[in-house]
Amino acid sequence: MRRAIDLIDSADGPLTLEGLAERMDMSPAHFQRLFSAWVGISPKRYQQYLQLGQAKRMLSERMTTLAVADEIGLSGSSRLHDLFVRWEAMSPGDFARGGEGLVIEWDWFDSPFGAALVMATERGICGLAFGSEMGRDVAFDDLAKRWPKAQFVQSGERIAPLFEAAMAGRGETRLHMIGAPFQIKVWEALLNIPEGHVTTYSEIATRVGSPKAVRAVGTAVGRNPVSYLIPCHRALRKSGELGGYHWGLPVKRAMLAYESARTDANIAEK
3-class SS at 82? Predict the structure, then answer.
């Protein structure tokens, strides 16, 4: 289904069910069932969510004011499949030591958004990147250089349950974060944006007490080391344009479409 999503996202216009199924070597009926089970909606509906105007519609209809979200508890049980994220920042001393003495386990896994690189310490997930746009080597180096003195050990079997539970929204996902104080404040604000909603960089700047620091907020959003779980993809420009995305704009578009589709499907079921 990752391949199918890539085909849809790279197409110049809408693709027919029959055309997609043929390219996936499946019958139309089987492909429709499999895609709907994986993504939550039909291929046709998913293509509608990927349209460039979708971000602007989300901004006008699902703009999250972070102060209100905080007060009414939109973070926590309302975000990412009722996933509860508990996280802790490294101490200033740990930050200064660059991970010296720390063992970080890592591996690559399949995800709805392409190959996902997961890194974890004994305290929780400390890195989540996507390599479909920039490539695996570049994505690995990007995360690893944030912990320059750590020891990296490839250990897929040990960290697979962490990643699978996080993506499925089962139980509690622990995150072990590394970042400067201002970055940590921005990432904390991002956790208050529920799935299927978006906010703006300027709204985040206001929320963290630096309303004029929009550019700095954008930089901090882009340095989020645990993408998707800390939802930096939900931050847009005031105009409704997507803005940047560290792991590639096609990945950001796919994430927004994926979440918007599931949100609408859940509302329809209720």
Answer: coil
